[in-house]
Amino acid sequence: MLLWRRSSSGLAMPPDPGTPWRVMFLGQGPLAEVAYARLLDLPEEAGLRVPVACSNPDGQGTWWGTAQIRELAGRHGVRFISNARRNDSLLARAVAESSINCLISVGHPWVLPGQVLRSIHGRAAFNLHNGPLPRFGGFNAASHALLEGAARFGPTLHWMEPVPDAGSIAFQETFEIPRDATARSLHDLTFQAGQRLFACLVDHLVEGRLPPRIPMTGPPAIYPRRALSEHREIPGTAHDVEVDRKSRAFWFPPFEPAFYRRNGKKYYVVPALAMSDIATAHWTADRAFSCGTTT
């Protein structure tokens, strides 16, 4: 059965009328869990199915502490693939076996190679990134933006390529970064904006339209997973602006805050507005270190 069409230029086209989108969903974290639930809540007449999902198998070792995608997949009879380790061949096989014609990634922790993307019928593959592209690609976009004193921030939903966080932009939303923003509060603002972008994508697919393809412009930057850790310590020569930026850029409970050392001891530095988070988060140093050192 034909599940996709390809234009004369080789670009993806929506399925023929009456043929549903068959989506493989990959992702983890709060935004991914909300997005996945939104897909499963669509009525049958929307013409969008999600026969395969890939996410974290449990909440242990994650800062958000849940595995709602796995749980929802189990309740709805969706084939589930763990992302605990890289599984490119398994994903490619699932694409073929489930006749996948659309891939949606929201916080998937592994770079998808060309092998997987080429296996998507028509290559309708999208990624929702939690930062503005191409300036803040990779990991911990909010923290890096605060460290650099960026003025604006926001998520990007883009067409996927084998290169991380590359490909044409489908939708993007930016907002002014509040002067007292922390990594956590910026994450929360991006969480809300990300839901709006995801809704735009779903609306397009349900209406039988593909999203726009807007070329990325500007110098790209891809931050590796552990690139943030080297900036966590505040040097003794730090000026006030650097101390302020680091205190806010590393405030994301339960992860370790910014710190400085004196006489062999470590002292944490947190922004004043973080006191309300401390009162409600119930986090401890043991909990912070158990989750690693990056947000």
Structure, described:
The protein has 295 residues and is of the alpha/beta class. The protein folds into 2 domains: 19-222, Rossmann fold (3-Layer(aba) Sandwich); 229-290, no CATH class. The protein is built from 9 helices and 15 strands. Helix 1 runs parallel beside helix 6 (183-206) and helix 5 packs antiparallel against helix 7. The N and C termini lie far apart (43 Å). The model is unreliable at 1-10 and 283-295 (pLDDT under 50).
For the largest beta-sheet, the strand count, sense and barrel status come to:
7 strands, mixed
Uncertain runs with pLDDT below 50, 5 residues or more?
Answer: 1-10, 283-295
* Number of distinct helices: 9
The CATH C-level name of the largest domain is: Alpha Beta
Tell me which CATH architecture of the largest domain applies here: 3-Layer(aba) Sandwich
CATH topology of the largest domain: Rossmann fold
Q: How many structural domains?
A: 2
Q: Averaging pLDDT over every residue, what do you get? A: 88
| Helix proportion range | 25-40%
Over the alpha carbons, how many angstroms does the gyration radius reach? 20 Å
Q: How far apart, in Å, are the first and last alpha carbons?
A: 43 Å
Order of helices and strands: EEEHEHEHEHEEHEEEEHEHEEHH
Shape: elongated
Number of strands: 15
Question: What is the spatial order of strands in the main beta sheet?
Answer: 5-4-3-6-7-10-11
Strand content: 15-25%
